[in-house]
TrEMBL record, chains A, B:
This is Zinc-dependent alcohol dehydrogenase family protein. Keywords: Metal-binding, Oxidoreductase, Zinc. The lineage of its organism: Bacteria, Bacillati, Actinomycetota, Actinomycetes, Propionibacteriales. Its cofactor is Zn(2+). Pfam families: ADH_N, ADH_zinc_N. CDD domains: FDH_like_ADH3. Belongs to the zinc-containing alcohol dehydrogenase family. SMART domains: PKS_ER (SM00829). Residues 7-336 form the Enoyl reductase (ER) domain.
Amino acid sequence: MRATTIHAPGDIRFEEVPDPVIEEPTDAIVKVVAGCICGSDLWPYRGANDIDAGSTIGHECVGVIEEVGSAVKDFKPGDFVIVPFCHCDNTCAHCVAGVQAACENLGFTASGQGEYSRVTQADGSLVKTDGMPDASLIPSLLTLSDVMATGWHAAVSAGVKPGGTTVVIGDGAVGLCGVLAAAQLGAERVVAMSRHEPRQAIARAFGATDIVAERGDEGGARIAELTKGVGADSVLECVGTDESMKTAFAIARPGSTVGFVGVPHGVELPVRRMFQKNVGLAGGMAGVRRYLPDLLERVLSGSIDPGKVFDLTLPMAQSAEGYRAMDERRAIKVLLQP
Amino acid sequence: MRATTIHAPGDIRFEEVPDPVIEEPTDAIVKVVAGCICGSDLWPYRGANDIDAGSTIGHECVGVIEEVGSAVKDFKPGDFVIVPFCHCDNTCAHCVAGVQAACENLGFTASGQGEYSRVTQADGSLVKTDGMPDASLIPSLLTLSDVMATGWHAAVSAGVKPGGTTVVIGDGAVGLCGVLAAAQLGAERVVAMSRHEPRQAIARAFGATDIVAERGDEGGARIAELTKGVGADSVLECVGTDESMKTAFAIARPGSTVGFVGVPHGVELPVRRMFQKNVGLAGGMAGVRRYLPDLLERVLSGSIDPGKVFDLTLPMAQSAEGYRAMDERRAIKVLLQP
């Protein structure tokens, strides 16, 4: 098959690689209908992560089951499925506790930007739709494989409840989905920290009531003003840098929780401040499967439309251009079609 | 008056200092009936914190109101009161949210190991008993000024719920009170990590079902064994060192929360592990006043007896010996009588 591969920082190719095959009886092979590029794919692209040269890249996709292993009971070829980026058996102690990201049989999508992708623990991981969904729904369904579920995880981890003020740090696709999640979970005021007009527009469409364009100390001062000096009732940290984490803890009200989903890079948590102000931290890698049935229902019923985060669609063969567009912030999130 | 002072690491004195006086109309002066030495007093004693030479030390006490400022309405001379180590107005946004440790009018007890102590925000901070309590209750009431409330805060922050396994790291008085709190809050299994037989005995009396004497990797292996590889449902970090924090995150099950109350010293939080395993951190300085009415009721009804943590009682004039005894771990916690 052909798939997107990474060879070095900045070196993305779309080329022939071996077809993924059923390796375990619990596996399934999915023919990708749509994949996309994640903000976290930019870490290796920018040289911040180690690269296994020539390996496939891409962990978000939806598609149609091509083949299933002998132990797969709930899916058959032809089913349209959402593929969580992290695969889980959905039966181990961690899955049962709602922490599918720590499944004892954890696996990951490895060629979501390719023509086919292998899913381990298919029965535990996948969720299917009734028949082939309308093409207009594909972008939103695709977000459920990671970005929307991750934004939702940030909001749940931060303890967003009806009423109150939620601040979302990060105006990438995850942050925007965090805005949508906070609004859906009933936050009265949802503040998106964003300097980019197109992203601000999506944030507003997703339910942001306020936009704060300032960063660092100035951003903190604006949040203090908006919250009458009390601080935010919940903060979603959707970036993963030390600066964004520091901002999160600076604006979170005492007793609140920072929900974090940005893969931490160079983060040193301000433990003294956390102690003195009683501000907690929760979150981490999103166990997508936990939220999938609920989010699917919300998409199918039209109550959320997270597919709006895609502002560029390219043929998969042009995935390198997709990376460039996201790296240069010309695109928020890029959808790739085989 | 005479009070305990610190002049340098290891240099504790009991000497004449100026009497505390009403400085604000919301102040009260309490004649100390009993004070005690906190594990956190050992930080400056051991040279780990800066010292203002000659300053009074000690933030835990109970006593009788000697004098009140003109704005104090709920207390009068003669009332027996528990003095939270951190004072609060109990009316600001943070107090109303249950985070009294972040009160806008935060104050601290400064001469709890002396004959008198000033309490700021007396109406918000203090809780009184009906009449003078029986002498046998004084030790338990004294623990409510900090140590028992702090152990309780650890358990609440860690999300201890009925059922499940709680592990308590630290067998100082706070950790022992954490054991008591976890048992009171219904943990089915309470594991005290302790190598010291007298502390193990108190832990068992407080409700520990298991004792783990091993530390570090070996301690982690024991907890893994006890929890069938899943990890602890909640972990109370009651020390504040990097080692104890690392242990806490090593044994906490994915999706759980480490409740921390040990003042962090040299702690570098394992943010990558927190992310990968979805283990959160919550807690910090305990807003004692939040828990005080409930804990007082539990002491008066005889359902808890946290005064057991005191295994040495000395005249206040011998406070220096009290510090030595705690520093050398000859005593768990020292009660001082004027």
